[in-house]
Amino acid sequence: MKKKPLVVVTRRLPDVIETRMRELFDAHLNVDDTPLTAQQLVEAVRTADVLVPTITDRVDAALLAQAGENLKLIANFGNGFDHIDVETALSRGITVTNTPGVLTQDTADMTMALLLAVARRLPEGARTLVDGDWQGWSPTWMLGRRITGKRLGIVGMGRIGQALARRAKAFGLSIHYHNRRRVSAAVEEELEATYWDSLDQMLARMDIVSIHCPHTPATYHLLSARRLKLMKREAVLVNTARGEIVDEVALARMLEAGDLAGAGLDVFEHEPSVNPRLLKLARQNRVVLLPHMGSATIEGRVDMGEKVIVNIKTFLDGHRPPDRVLPSML
Ligand code: 8YV
Description:
Elements: E1 6-9, H1 15-24, E2 26-28, H2 38-47, E3 50-52, H3 61-64, E4 73-75, H4 86-91, E5 95-97, H5 104-119, H6 122-130, E6 151-155, H7 159-170, E7 174-178, H8 185-191, E8 194-195, H9 199-205, E9 208-211, H10 225-230, E10 236-239, H11 248-256, E11 262-265, H12 276-283, E12 287-289, H13 298-316
Parallel strand pairs: 1-2, 1-3, 3-4, 4-5, 6-7, 6-9, 7-8, 9-10, 10-11, 11-12
The protein binds 2-keto-D-gluconic acid (8YV).
Residues 54-55, 77-80, 103, 294-295 line the site of 2-keto-D-gluconic acid.
């Protein structure tokens, strides 16, 4: 009987996905869900035909240099692939795939939730009540900011940016965006979106800025100290993309100085550790911080797993997998 291909999965996945993987492949699953050690990861790339990493694995050039001949596919469980040295992988003849599309709506929902949580002081209100500090209703107490009628600047108008724009439009925000390329006239019309060629100019005029571009060498610290300073003092920054896109130290400094009204962050530069200055600001109810939960839904994780399986199966059947990461995407 033909040997089943060895597929190494670095983290626990939903039960239905693991079961299916066991049926289809010689699946090496990580039963205790702690990230693989550096040594285990080396072992994985040496032996596997297919590696299924997640954002918690650093698949860099040093690791890939130790890959065995068999390793021909890295089927990432996730949309973002900035933890994988795709260029090196491709140069070694290894195909890389991701899971686009299936986490778009969940991430856009979470962005909207974060935006509302900051503007309407949700965690602060909830904490006050639970701590027994609610003295009763008052006309001037716990006032947030109205979002209807405000200007939302979206940095990165791909799938998630557009999904956020649809939601935000329904909430009565006006939509502005900056993107490498202008989206189609039809989409602009649908969203009544204004395109800003200059990120700097857009930042200076927005009430809320939300980040939805990928993290690449070109977008590292795109929201630099200089650019953050362009934002209005009353503005709010939301980030559900990647922490590295924002200069976190500069952001903390601005929030501490009252030069920016607030921030909602689901992602951080050095996850899972979070800058203590941001933690302090969260305790002071100046920012809302979440532990990278943007795409964390039961349905979404199953959809992601199914995409991974389709990519692996298609590849192993000798065809081009649907979600290849191409050099043009780097
Ligand atoms: C996932 C994400 O949790 O897909 C992405 O890019 O950031 C996530 O929401 C993560 O990537 C899983 O590997």
